[in-house]
Every structure is written in structure tokens, then in C-alpha cells.
Specification:
CATH superfamily of the largest domain in chain A: Thiamin diphosphate (ThDP)-binding fold, Pyr/PP domains
Number of strands of chain A: 15
Helix content of chain B: 40-55%
Shape of chain B: globular
CATH class of the largest domain in chain A: Alpha Beta
Strand content of chain B: 5-15%
Order of helices and strands of chain A: EHEHEHEHHEHEHEEEEHEEEHEHEHH
Strand order of the largest sheet of chain B: 2-3-1-4-5-9-8
Structural class of chain B: alpha/beta
CATH superfamily of chain B: Thiamin diphosphate (ThDP)-binding fold, Pyr/PP domains
Oligomer: heterodimer
Shape of chain A: globular
CATH topology of chain B: Rossmann fold
Largest sheet of chain B: 7 strands, mixed
CATH architecture of the largest domain in chain A: 3-Layer(aba) Sandwich
Radius of gyration of chain A: 20 Å
CATH topology of the largest domain in chain A: Rossmann fold
Structural class of chain A: alpha/beta
Largest sheet of chain A: 7 strands, mixed
Radius of gyration of chain B: 20 Å
Number of strands of chain B: 10
Distance between the termini of chain B: 78 Å
Largest interface: A-B, 53 and 52 residues
Distance between the termini of chain A: 39 Å
Chain lengths: 332, 342
């Protein structure tokens, strides 16, 4: 095992897939000469050249359509969209074409395409550059939507995504690129399945379900809860669509209590969808109503003070847990 | 009348020309049959007929090789037929039957065949232009010997995707031919009102590619314009933008009352600019074919359209198990379950 950043692990996964399969190439805005807006693709242009590391014009609609067409033509494109916010310009091609083609053409075409995009807030980028939006894509049948949170997962999942025959929306987070974690040594081949959640911390008193950057907030909260005698089980969804429902229900059967912690907005998103699923699949095991930690229901403000107030933090998770864990469990 | 075997029209042989004539009639009779079945309630949803535009599809397809690929709009029954799709498979798709080219899951707007290089009709105006660029990129990337012909209407020209796609195809010199079928109206909006230009030549120039305005009611002119564009793409000289001027004789879709144009205008086009009539006159004037041969083609086309409808009628509906197949490649759904893990 080595310790490396999320950014480096992601790049290594992309590079390994490009070395493995000639059909894999990467395209996007400022990924070659500039090295990637978040430096994920740095060095790939020098290694693979302009055929396989392609700078594109600032034209999200056509670059997304072109990636879809290239996938239909038998290639394995990785498309980098500069941020998830810009993906709205490409959303027609993603939702109306990539997600639909296999079904509406009777199972004939495949769209083996990975669309990478960082989402999320916390860097004072304001209302138009701080959105999560994963639930928008997770709503759509025909897509896979993943949001890995650790260096180990991001490398394993980008490799699995490239090999997957379906369109995969691969959501990174602007504040995850620099986090560090353990990754198997160079040359040790592994992938992480796209449709499985992961228990990042075992516990018996409460299940906290989360994904992307919020995993790290939740893990800090869990450590602090442990000091008060509450052992939280932390589930990292990793995949938003499909959702690993049995992993969740098994945990709920054990703990009987759930907190969902996400960076997105409260209404009609991943958290609420998940809550409904848990009530459908595990209602009889629930001892308390699900608590939901999320961002303030506002466009993201720029001011540092306001942004901090808008984003869910460790204390919000702790308070949500304490609201439904019986007093008797808590050491005072 | 003496029949000449000379290749006097567009460098095409007499048998090629007669086959094109048959194809145009097949498209016409097939669409007439489709309209009839729609009225009978056998076909649902949207249906956009190609009647009046047959010269564009048939002339263009004559310039392609079988391995070339086409990407189309939602008005694509004609393109699918001209590229070689079985009429029964097209009609069965309109009927929503399992024997349809997309298993009845697509409908009128969504024809596909991997084998024939028919890569879809698209229900989103102009979405096919970026996608066609991508399929062309795959050919360029792998060195596979095919080009892509992308068909769209004048309405698609107003979408941002048109401009983004032409620019990208041009800077990457992609092997694609962009064929605008200017049938004068995007639904009800006339092209004179919608375009800031009189024709697409300035648009082609803006994206630094060759452009040409073509008479779309003359199948030979269409063929003669598409052929060099296809060759340019094939030898790596990049894309071309063709504006092929045509007219749809029917409404935009089956429910279009055509308030936006006059009956006189429609009559004028139908009576003096019918592409089949124009082609027949050309052929007879050149001494290349006789009325008897036209009649024979017509009878055959009528019968094939009839048989397509019978095939569709007699085909089974998709089984309900088809509802959940083909969403994902492995047919998985939104939930992943423990039993799969074991």
C-alpha cells in the first residue's frame, strides 16, 4: 500500500486503462495543454499525445454528443466536463441520448462512455459553481451514477467505469482531489465494483448513510460520537444509481436507526429518495424517524461565513444522530 | 422508344437509375401506407412523413457505400428504407411490434440497424449532429473505412448543437457529410423567418468547410452533390455542409393542419415539383426508361408496402418481459441486491 492523493489515484487509474486498451481516450476542455482544470490529467498529453488526450472547444453539447458517437463507434471515451455545473449544457445529450439509446433502439447499441465531472461546494465558488446535482442524473434509467470518496475507490471505480458497457456519470468533488489515502502499490491490479456501497466504519447503534466529500465529515462525526459511547455504522454509497439497497437494509436491521448525510439540497434529491426506499424495504426494523442532514435550501452564497452556514458540518451530523439515539446509550 | 444503355445521368447506369426510381416509389408508397395505417389507429404517437423529400434520401444513399453510416432526424423512415432496411421491419416498428427494427420500443422516430449502419433517428432536433461527429471520430481514430452522413432539417440549423458540431467537425477534419434537408418549414416556422441568412453557404464558410446549395427535387443533382462530399470525407479532407432544398408534401406530422402555408403553395409544389415526376421526365427525355418500367416499379413498390403492413399486422406484440430489458447492457435495474453479491 502507498499513500497518495485522490487526484493522483484517479490519474493513475485513467492512465492504466489507456495503457490497457487502445480504444480508451480522454477528451475535454483544457485537459491537454493546461493539464486539466484540477490537474487530474496532468502529464497524460505528454505521454499519450493529442490523438488520445484531446483538448476540445468550450462546447459541452457537441463534446458530449461526440463522446457518445465515439462510444457508438466502438471507442471507450472518457469525457471530462470541467464541472458538474457545466454538465447542464450537456444534459440533453446525456439524458435524451446516452441514457436512452440502448432501450429505444431495442438493445442494439452500447454506449460505453464515462463522463467525469467534479461537483460540490465549499471553495467559495458561488451559486453557479457549487452544486452537487448527482440526483438529477441518478433519476434517469439508463445511466450509472457514482461518486467515489477515497483514493482507493476513485482509482478502482474509474477503471471499472471505463470497462463498463453503459454510460457512467462519474462525480468527483472539488475538495476531494487533495485528500490522501491508501492505494495498492503500482502494478497491483484492482477494480472497485460500480454498484456496491461500502461500510467505511462498523457500528451497532446507528447507520449513517453518505457519499462523496460528506463521507469524511461523517467519519469525523462518528469518531466523536464514539467518545460519547455511540457506535455509528458509516455506509459510503459510492454508487447513487444503482443503489446497494441490501447493504443498507442489512445495516438498518442491525441498528434500527438511520441518518442520511449529504451535501445536496433537502427536497427531491438522493437523501429523500433513499429515505423512501428504506421505509419501503425496512420499515418494520425502524425504531425512529430517519434524520436528514443536507445543505441549506438556498443557492450557494459566496461569503465564507454564509457558505459555511449553508454546508452541512460535523456538528449537524452529531446532532442528527443524538436526536434519535436513546438517552440510555449516551455516556454523559 | 429506344432504350439506351449509356450512362448519361450523373454517371449512373440505367439499372442503377431504375433502382433509384424504384426506391423513390417505395418510399412514397410506404409512407402513403403508413398514413393509412395511422388513420386506422394501427400506428400511434408522432409520425413524420417523408413524402416529397424522396430524392434527398435516395440520391444521398446512392452516393454511400454499404459500410458507411447514417445518423438521422425523426423523419427517417425513408432513410432507413433507402439504406436497405426491410420495409417490414420499418412498418413493424411503426406498429410497435417485436419484429420492428427496434423491437417496438422506439417507434417512428427511432430506427436502428448495426448491420446496415443506420444509427438512429433522433427525436431531439439537432442531437444527431454531435453524435454523427463522434461516430466519424471513431472512424478517424481506428482507421476503419467508413464515413458518416448526417441528415437534419432546416430547424436543426437554429439549434446551438448545429454550430458546435460543425465547428468541431471542421477543426478535427472528421469524415462526415452534414446534409440539411431544407423543406422550408421547421414545423410551422418558415425558414425565411428563422434564418439570418438566405442559404447555408455563409454558415459553411463560417466553419471553414465546403458548402453547396442543391436542388433536392432532382435525385440526380442530389447524388452529384453528395458524391464528392463523401469522397472528400473518405480521403481525410474533412466535412461538408450541403443544403438540399426540398418540400414536404404533407404536414410536419400526422396532426398538422398546415395553417402556416397556403393550399396554393402546396398544390404548386406537388403538381410541378414532384421529385418522382421530375425524375421520370428526365429518364424518358434521355431515353433511359419507359412508362411501362415506371408502372412496373410502382406496382412492385405498392405491393411491398402492402406486404410490409401485412407483416406488421401479423407480427406479435412485444412480451411484457421486454419492458425491463435493454435499459442497461446486463439488464440490471436501479437497485442492486444481495443475491447478486453471493
Amino acid at each position: 500500500m502507498r499513500t497518495m492523493t485522490y487526484r493522483d489515484a484517479l490519474r493513475e487509474g485513467i492512465r492504466e486503462e489507456m495503457l490497457r486498451d487502445e480504444r480508451v481516450f480522454i477528451m475535454g476542455e483544457d485537459i491537454a495543454g493546461y493539464g486539466g482544470t484540477y490537474a487530474v490529467t496532468k502529464g497524460l498529453f505528454e505521454e499519450f499525445g493529442e490523438k488520445r488526450v484531446r483538448d476540445t472547444p468550450l462546447a459541452e453539447e457537441v463534446i458530449t454528443g461526440t463522446a457518445i458517437g465515439a462510444a457508438l463507434g466502438g471507442l471507450r471515451p472518457i469525457l471530462e466536463l470541467m464541472t458538474i455545473n457545466f454538465s447542464l449544457l450537456a444534459s440533453d445529450l446525456i439524458i435524451n441520448s446516452a441514457a436512452k439509446f440502448r432501450y429505444m433502439f431495442g438493445g442494439q447499441p452500447q454506449v460505453p462512455l464515462v463522463i467525469r465531472m467534479p461537483g460540490g461546494g465549499g471553495a467559495q465558488r458561488g451559486a453557479q459553481h457549487s452544486q452537487m446535482l448527482e440526483s438529477l442524473y441518478a433519476h434517469i434509467p439508463g445511466l450509472k451514477v457514482v461518486a467515489p470518496a477515497t483514493p482507493y475507490d476513485v482509482k478502482g471505480m474509474i477503471k471499472a467505469a471505463v470497462r463498463d458497457p453503459n454510460p457512467v456519470i462519474f462525480i468527483e468533488h472539488e475538495l476531494l482531489y487533495n485528500i490522501k489515502g491508501e492505494v495498492p502499490d503500482e502494478g497491483v491490479e484492482y477494480t472497485v465494483p460500480l454498484e456496491r456501497g461500502d461500510i467505511k466504519r462498523e457500528g451497532s447503534d446507528i447507520t449513517i448513510i453518505t457519499f462523496s466529500r460528506m463521507l469524511h465529515v461523517v467519519l469525523q462525526a462518528a469518531e466523536e460520537l464514539a467518545k460519547s459511547g455511540i457506535e455509528a455504522e458509516v455506509i459510503d454509497l459510492r454508487s447513487i444509481r444503482p443503489i446497494d439497497i441490501d447493504l443498507i437494509t442489512d445495516s438498518v436491521k442491525k441498528t434500527n436507526r438511520v441518518v442520511i448525510a449529504e451535501e445536496g439540497w433537502k427536497y427531491y434529491g438522493t437523501g429523500q429518495g433513499l429515505a423512501a426506499l428504506i421505509y419501503e424495504h425496512a420499515f418494520d426494523y425502524m425504531d425512529a424517524p430517519i434524520q436528514h442532514v443536507n445543505s441549506a435550501d438556498v443557492p450557494m452564497p459566496y461569503s465564507k461565513v454564509l457558505e459555511r452556514a449553508a454546508l452541512p458540518a460535523k456538528d449537524d451530523v452529531i446532532n442528527a444522530v443524538k436526536a434519535i439515539v436513546p438517552e440510555a446509550l449516551v455516556r454523559r | 422508344m429506344a432504350i439506351s444503355n449509356a450512362t448519361s445521368l450523373g454517371g449512373l447506369t440505367r439499372s442503377q437509375l431504375l433502382e433509384m426510381h424504384y426506391q423513390m416509389l417505395l418510399l412514397r408508397r410506404f409512407e402513403e401506407k403508413s398514413a393509412e395505417e395511422y388513420t386506422r389507429g394501427k400506428i400511434g404517437g408522432f409520425m413524420h412523413l417523408y413524402i416529397g423529400q424522396e430524392a434527398v434520401g435516395v440520391g444521398s444513399m446512392q452516393a454511400l457505400r454499404p459500410e458507411d453510416k447514417i445518423v438521422c432526424s425523426y423523419r427517417e423512415h425513408g432513410h432507413a428504407l433507402a439504406k436497405g432496411m426491410e420495409p417490414g421491419a420499418v412498418m413493424a416498428e411503426l406498429f410497435g411490434k417485436i419484429t420492428g427494427c427496434s423491437k417496438g420500443k422506439g417507434g417512428s422516430m427511432h430506427m436502428w440497424s448495426n448491420e446496415l449502419g443506420i444509427l438512429g433517428g433522433n427525436g431531439i432536433v439537432a442531437a444527431q449532429l454531435p453524435i454523427a461527429a463522434g461516430v466519424a471520430l471513431a472512424a478517424q481514430y481506428t482507421g476503419e473505412d467508413y464515413i458518416v452522413a448526417c441528415f437534419f432539417g432546416d430547424g436543426a440549423v437554429d439549434e446551438g448543437a448545429f454550430h458546435e458540431a460543425l465547428n468541431l467537425a471542421s477543426i478535427w477534419k472528421l469524415p462526415v457529410v452534414y446534409i440539411c434537408e431544407n423543406n422550408q418549414y421547421s414545423m410551422g416556422m418558415s425558414v425565411q423567418k428563422a434564418w439570418a441568412v438566405d442559404n447555408l453557404l455563409p454558415r459553411a464558410a463560417a466553419y471553414n468547410m465546403p458548402g453547396e446549395v442543391v436542388d433536392g427535387m432532382d435525385v440526380v443533382s442530389v447524388y452529384e452533390a453528395v458524391k464528392p462530399a463523401v469522397e472528400r470525407a473518405r480521403i481525410g479532407n474533412g466535412p461538408t455542409l450541403l443544403e438540399i432544398k426540398t418540400y414536404r408534401f404533407r404536414g410536419h406530422s400526422m396532426t398538422d393542419p398546415s395553417y402556416y402555408r397556403t393550399r396554393e403553395e402546396e398544390h404548386e409544389w406537388r403538381s410541378t415539383r414532384d421529385p418522382i415526376g421530375i425524375f421520370e421526365k428526365k429518364l424518358t427525355d434521355a431515353g433511359l426508361a419507359t412508362q411501362a418500367e415506371f408502372d412496373e416499379n410502382d406496382a412492385k413498390a405498392t405491393q411491398v408496402a402492402e406486404e410490409a403492413a401485412e407483416f406488421a399486422e401479423n407480427s406479435p406484440n412485444p412480451g411484457l418481459e421486454e419492458l425491463y430489458t435493454d435499459v442497461m447492457v446486463d439488464n440490471s435495474g436501479a437497485l442492486s441486491y444481495r443475491y447478486e453479491r453471493k
